[in-house]
Write a structure and sequence with these properties.
Elements lengths: L13 H8 L5 H9 L2 H15 L15 H22 L1 H7 L6 H10 L7 H14 L2 H12 L5 E4 L15 E5 L4 E5 L7 E4 L8 E10 L2 E11 L12 E5 L12 E5 L2 E4 L8 E3 L5 E3 L9 H31 L18 H36 L6 H29 L11 H11 L6 H20 L11 H5 L10 H28 L4 H35 L5 H21 L1 H7 L4 H18 L3 H6 L5 H4 L10 H9 L11 H12 L3
Parallel strand pairs: 1-5, 2-5
Antiparallel strand pairs: 2-3, 3-9, 4-8, 5-6, 7-8, 10-11
Length: 676
């Protein structure tokens, strides 16, 4: 049972009590499904209790009321507090339960400590995974214990001022000197300055640096290096290194994103991460990896994890918005009736219920993608890289679409909360600024979809040649034969229709490419002239994948569910499919047998489904089981005491410390007493 459910009923807003009383399914049962089983839920609650019950995650003064320096220092303090809790209290639990770096439990509890972000995030999220993925066993035995025990704190510096997604264009150089057996790191241009790495500004003392490797006068492309950038005792930058913080941003302002400049800085030869490539003492370059894409394993890992991250953040936003909408009352459609709950308006249901469904869709898809990722890793251990291109295409498009969808849906949750959603104490603006950044980092939206598009075109050509194609692309087989997708409003029918749209858009790209090539243009020019269509095709493919996986995973998880839980999960799945079919009616009219009559029927079914889901709305967000410490919202707390919490939070503002601010005597009074 959630820790919040032991509260006395008279402490909870009456509207929320009524909402919970009319819920038709067992909320705990759905929580178990979302957690992957009752034991996982019990373990999560235990760890949340150990981490959060003592209140160490709470601030006396709201984080957003502090200055930039104070916010950063507070984030460092709480990062150390949280890390000490993990080290001292989780050791036995971690060993017992096999918690990994990707643990959603750690993600939840760390979120309770930071409204924005911990300066340690990239240490866990990029530094350690790269050590595990790119180092030899000997290197790992040296670096990983230091990183795990946080004797060293690291980040990941790849992006430069002048280059981000285009990794091959990075300008930082690492030139091998065989006389000293060292690499010389150098930033040759202004645009080569490392930029954006989280924790780099003031926090970390080590960094993984991606640089162009030169040896014996030959450039062998980008490689990762482990670089100590600060003295471990004084924390001063080492000679030959200039490092600092890049300044205020739209979000992530406690992450101390930094810049890093090298002036012929030397590191030992052994600091090249040598799992996939080595440089011998005499400077001979030896390629170890069996596939060049293996060197991008960390980036694929992060993209896979970001899909889960998006589901988690959208769950927070929609929990806040649905609870607030159940408490907030607005307008008076009938003079003799009280103001209705905002959640009773169909337009509000239209805004919010798709957010609940999308959270399920992305969580189920992320679990499926993680299983795909681990299976490909196992294959690669045995020398089989056949499924790596499909994984790369999937992780690219799913990262792009999930981050784009969630940024717009979280903003939609804020809109649904009216003026109070604009307050930082609602936590919705901070959630939005956090999530919208993910649309760009670890691969820009457009660039990632174009990477997926290359895979789609190759697959189409393989299908034309009669070659076998990957499971996620199986729908192309029928399209190559010239079959037009038929329309049916069943979930299975909508999935097939979305696949038909994807196939139609891929074919349009193929025709465009061939037309340009026939006119005498070279391949890259033809590609550039088709990119608008290619992005749309990749988006359609990704949408079809999510629809199919969500539907299949819902059926699989429902195989052991109660009838009541099965019903609400099917309703959410159907709502998601209806919503996107209505959003894409133009594409469906173009590529399937959908008619105007079908659209009218679908719209009616969609609106009816909103009213069916309405009684369970609060129960559905309660099933995410997000503690108040994690939500950090005056609007979304379990007790629904919205107005009391808004006022209490406002009174914490330093501007309310005394009734008259010093600025009155210093500026306002002289101004008012003066003459114009």
């Amino acid at each position: 049972m959630s820790v919040f459910k032991v509260m006395a009923s008279n402490d909870i807003n009456p509207d929320l009590l009524k909402e919970r009383a009319k819920c038709t399914f067992n909320v705990d049962e759905l929580t178990y499904i979302l957690d992957g089983g009752e034991k996982n839920t019990e373990r999560r609650k235990l760890i949340e209790s150990i981490t959060l019950d003592d209140g160490a995650c709470l601030d006396e003064i709201p984080e957003e009321c502090l200055g930039p320096k104070e916010r950063y220092q507070n984030a460092v303090r709480k990062s150390c507090v949280y890390a000490n809790i993990v080290k001292s209290k989780f050791a036995d639990i971690t060993a017992l339960e096999n918690l990994g770096l990707h643990s959603a439990v750690l993600r939840r509890t760390s979120d309770a400590f930071f409204k924005e972000i911990s300066p340690f995030l990239l240490h866990l999220g990029m530094f350690m995974p790269t050590i595990m993925g790119q180092c030899t066993p000997e290197q790992m035995s040296h670096w990983l214990p230091l990183a795990l025990d946080m004797k060293i704190i690291g980040t990941y510096a790849q992006t430069e001022l002048g280059h981000g997604t285009f990794i091959r264009g990075l300008e930082t150089t690492a030139t091998y000197d065989p006389e000293t057996e060292e690499f010389v790191l150098h930033s040759p241009t202004l645009s080569s300055y490392k930029w954006w790495a989280g924790g780099l500004g003031k926090t970390v003392n080590h960094s993984i640096v991606v640089a162009q490797l030169y040896t014996k006068g030959v450039c062998h492309g980008v490689h990762p290096f482990i670089v100590q950038i600060r003295d471990l005792e004084t924390h001063m930058p080492l000679p030959g290194i200039k490092v600092g913080e890049i300044g205020p941003k739209m979000g992530f302002n406690t992450a101390d994103n930094g810049f890093l400049i090298f002036n012929n800085f030397r590191i030992p030869r052994e600091n090249l991460m040598m799992k996939n490539a080595q440089v011998l003492k005499d400077g001979t370059y030896v390629k170890v990896a069996r596939h060049e894409k293996l060197t991008y394993g960390t980036m694929v890992f992060v993209r896979v994890m970001l899909v889960s991250e998006m589901a988690f953040n959208l769950a927070k936003a929609v929990t806040i918005a649905v609870r607030y909408s159940a408490v907030r009352r607005q307008s008076q459609p009938r003079p003799d009736q009280p103001e209705p709950q905002v959640l009773d308006y169909l337009t509000q249901q239209h805004k919010l219920f798709i957010c609940i469904a999308t959270t399920h869709a992305l969580q189920f898809t992320s679990e499926w993608l993680w299983a795909t990722f681990t299976a490909v890793l196992q294959d690669m251990k045995h020398g089989n890289t056949d499924n790596l291109p499909e994984l790369h295409a999937l992780s690219s498009c799913l990262k792009a679409i999930s981050t784009s969808d969630c940024s717009s849906l979280i903003e939609q949750c804020r809109f649904a909360c009216g003026g109070h959603g604009y307050m930082l104490s609602s936590n919705l603006p901070l959630l939005y600024s956090f999530v919208t950044a993910t649309r760009t980092y670890e691969g820009d939206y457009t660039v990632l979809l174009l990477q997926t598009a290359r895979f789609l075109l190759k697959t189409w050509e393989q299908a034309e040649e009669g070659k076998p194609i990957t499971p996620t692309m199986s729908y192309i087989t029928q399209a190559v034969k010239g079959e037009r997708a038929s329309w049916h409003s069943s979930p299975e029918g909508i999935v097939r229709a979305m696949e038909g749209v994807a196939a139609g858009k891929i074919l349009a790209c193929v025709k465009s490419m061939r037309r340009h090539l026939k006119s005498g243009k070279d391949y890259e020019e033809a590609w550039e002239l088709t990119t608008v269509q290619l992005v749309a095709a990749a988006e359609a493919h990704c949408r079809a994948v999510i629809c199919k996986v969500y539907h299949q995973e819902t059926e699989r998880k429902n195989s052991t569910s109660s009838a009541e839980v099965k019903a609400v999960m099917e309703q959410l799945n159907t709502l998601y499919l209806y919503y996107w079919a209505l959003e894409k009616t133009g594409d469906l009219l173009r590529f399937t047998t959908l008619s105007e009559t079908d659209i009218c029927r679908l719209q009616q079914k969609y609106e009816e489904l909103l009213t069916v889901i309405r009684p369970n709305a609060v129960g559905l967000v309660d099933a995410f089981d997000l503690r108040d410490e994690v939500l950090k919202s005056t609007l979304g707390a379990y007790d629904g005491r919205v107005y009391e919490r808004i006022v209490a939070e406002a009174l914490k503002s330093p501007l309310n410390a005394k009734p008259v601010d010093d600025s009155f005597h210093k500026y306002l009074k002289p101004f008012m007493q003066g003459k114009l």
